[in-house]
Amino acid sequence: MNEWEASFEAFVQRLMDDFQVPGAIIAVAKDGELTYEKAFGYRDREKQTPIDLDTVFGIGSITKSFTCMAILKLQEEGKLSVHDPVITYLPEFRTPDEAQTKRITIHHFMTHTLGFPPLPSLIPAMLPSLQADPTAQELLQHFEAQCKHPIDTFEDLMAYIEKLTFELLGPAGTEFSYSNEAFGLLGAIIERVSGKTYEAYVQEHFLQPIGMGRTVFHVEELGEDDNTTMLYTRRMNDGVREVVRAPGWWDAPSMRAAGFLKSSARDMLRYADVYRTGGLSNGTRIISGDSVSQMTAPHVRIDLSRSYGYGLGVFSFTEDYTLLTHTGGLKGITAQMFIVPEAGVTGILLTNMDDAPITNLTLGLLNSMFGRPLETQFATFSEWEVPLDYLQQCPGTYQSGEGDVVEIRFDEAQRQLLLVLGNDVFPLRSVGEDTFLFTRHNIDSLIRFVRRPDGEIKRMAFGSRQIPKAT
């Protein structure tokens, strides 16, 4: 037993209790060998059924790394280049700017730098599964205007984007903003270039050769096997937050490449090992070392401490270590995969509730393993002086096409900006040009105000998305 395990597991249990997470599993390998595994809670809270390394959970947007791996596999086969224009393969793809449409490449899709702000496409893309889910009614009401018709095919998705009115964030390659649409359409490129469905391509080239027998797009593929998790979601009931049972996996046929795989901890450690080894799985080459290098290179800066490769976040963890990682979240799903290549370490954290405190869990695990105090942050930042007139330009309501609403206020007495999320208010501390830090659930996060050439603030980079200023 590692000396850090007892204190770490007490830390996890406190978080699980505080956030009412029904179940989770955490597993770590060193040089491909399992060194730590621990299940917490239950895969089905009501039946009190246990979780093990083979229990199937959703992995959400960790699917995006499989999608990028597929694109690079096709590049290895000489069937495409990541620097090809997207319209070479998707001639019906349109944006509000025809010249920009022609300049957007597959690389821009893979790095979320095509210039799209957050758009509402994912909701109509999931429409049939949302309509079948009693816990999704509030979400459907909120997006009623966008949900006249389901987006069932790649062609539907491109037609839907063409009809939307939105302002591009900037020339292709200049602005990072997380785009599920881009990754949904990478699935279309994989399908058209390979002649196979996206799901079949991933199955044939990655899931089968890596030995990921419990990784599927639909749990029905597992047959009679019932070692899959129940799904749970949080909702307010008379002002009290409760976690409710929410069976039924959400699905989006046109956007499966953006986030709809399900997997087990054992399978995900096998998958993460491909990045540790430079493209190998048990001695079998899955992708080339050069492709792994391309996936894990920091192609674009997200903020002062984070960059993005192809379907993977690339963070500086310490002076000696790089953290390759991606999270995933959807109803009944919060997950995180990580690789610390220099240490030969891979890890996976899977939970059966949306909005579980996955960053706290992952950071606590990494801190414990690398001998740092449990609540050490990913990065530290110096104070930055900001003129008063600048602070007074920032207040307003920022609203995204995905439904996120963030309010910025100015506290005259404290001469400080405040970030308002629902009923929660967080003071902002300046740590760089246009960049501010706030602390939520003991995790430091950065926001950045984006200005027009004349200096007027037009959007805010929040999390991994750029949110336009509405008022």
UniProtKB/TrEMBL annotation:
InterPro entries: AmpC-like, Beta-lactam-related, Beta-lactam/transpept-like. It comes from the Bacteria. It holds the Pfam family Beta-lactamase. Transmembrane segments: none annotated. This is Penicillin-binding protein. It comes from Brevibacillus formosus. PANTHER family: BETA-LACTAMASE-RELATED DOMAIN-CONTAINING PROTEIN, D-ALANYL-D-ALANINE-CARBOXYPEPTIDASE/ENDOPEPTIDASE AMPH. Residues 8-354 form the Beta-lactamase-related domain.
